[in-house]
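chain below, 274 aa
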Amino acid sequence: MSELTVGIGGFGAIGAKVAKALDPNGAKGGMPGIKLVAVSARDHDGARNRMDGMANPVPVVSLAELAGLAEVVVECAPAAVFAEVAEAAVEAGRIFIPLSCGALLQHPDLAARAAETGARIIVPTGALVGLDAVRAASEGIIHSVHMVTRKPPNGLAGAPHLVDNNISVENLTAAKLVFAGTARAAAKAFPANVNVAAALSMAGNGPDNTTIEIWADPGVTRNTHTINVDSDATRFEMTIEGIPSPENPATGLLTPLSVLATLRGLVSTLKVGT
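prediction:
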């Protein structure tokens, strides 16, 4: 089997963990069928420093250059530069794996353009348990999808919705509801916090028909998501408690593992799950 070449756009907490897991001579032994060929970061020197522990470091290039070097482009950059990574990958007909899937909702034209260029956009499941069941239910009729997210307050601090509405999450002694609305609105209000809601909406009945509550909760230490789905074929509730990343409490430790599972699914001869 020929190897799929991979480029990683964004080399922070998530990107660095994915890169090190793909290092063929690293502690994880790499991934058969997948070859890391480049990474991109705003701070090139910082990215090179983060590759110090890698046995096979790769070049650090600009975000737009990744699509010319790799067949698969993984986006794990700040939402503000999402378009720079995404548009180049789609125009080049690459397999594009976005982690900022909330930003994907703000660029609906990408899917249509991918159909023209031959690109594929694959959204990892990330922190969402049961995505296969939601996707299967969407082949029938989904009546409702509702999600309640509870995060430690420091995992929400600085979100645009909190800043714009002068909502403080400091020194809380009880859980505080900071948002209630659609998944589309949540993705814009909390671009670094609720990508899971965007993925849920795309798997199910759409971003305008998926509702979400976001709570800043000093009583939790994990990013907790409870999802209720009601459809003509099934009804279920699921809860997941993700451990926040020490480097970035807005995301979880499961996120880079989800990227690796997605990459493995591209080359595995046996793939479990739709």
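DSSP finds eleven helices and eleven strands in the chain. The domain at 4-127+253-267 is CATH 3.40.50.720 (Rossmann fold).
thats it, cya
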